[in-house]
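Case study 2.
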Amino acid sequence: MRRVLVAMATLASLLTIGQASANSPDIPSAYVVAAEDNGIPPDVLYAVAMTESKLSLEHAVRPWPWTLNVGGKGYRYETRNDACTALRSFLQQTRVVDVGIAQMNVHWQPQVFGPGKRFSDPCAGLDPYANLDEAAKVIRQHYDASGDWVVAAGRYHRPAGGAPAALYRRKVREELAQLGSSPSLGTDSAELMVARVASSSRSTPSTSADFANDASLTWITPSPRSMEPDVTWVTPEPRRWMAEVAVASR
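Prediction:
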């Protein structure tokens, strides 16, 4: 049991390093990056993730990336490999499976699941960073249609609305209240508008399948080489999340 708790705490720390800002208390940087890249408030994305997959850890309650939901029943696993194995088993019975930290659905979100899509391998949807990025895109689309962040969250869960969406909105409001936030009607901040424009010009990001053989990713700034005097070395500028990513080796 202690080994399980240590593994959970280690992975949770990867998604809890750093604070967003005074306006977005206790929101880990991974959520802020995904939210700003897609032009949504970080607290909305974090509240949705909490509503979808939160788990009580040793020292905190946080969204848990190795989460599945089938037929309304949630399943949380110790490792990504365990979650992937279970996902493949469930998909032999049904494609209506919610996957990952923000519970993207294999059947109802074909824009990301399927051949040639970002999650061509369904287990790629377990990547918490990619999962949050795609969830933020969907929430933004619903906000553009509704003009209300809480309504957008409800439609993220149930696009058709009705009682399920209303219940979900209530849960999201509770999570927002815990953060001391209540975004609803309103316009984007200048920061989020700039982030959204930048996001629209990006190329399609790599999937976690590209790194399937390397379970530990850490940003390393290489030292300049001096053997070729005719070569000018340019050190890339890392983004915020690069300094924080160190995927648990499982």
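The beta strands are 54-56, 61-63, 67-70, 73-76, 97-99, 104-105.
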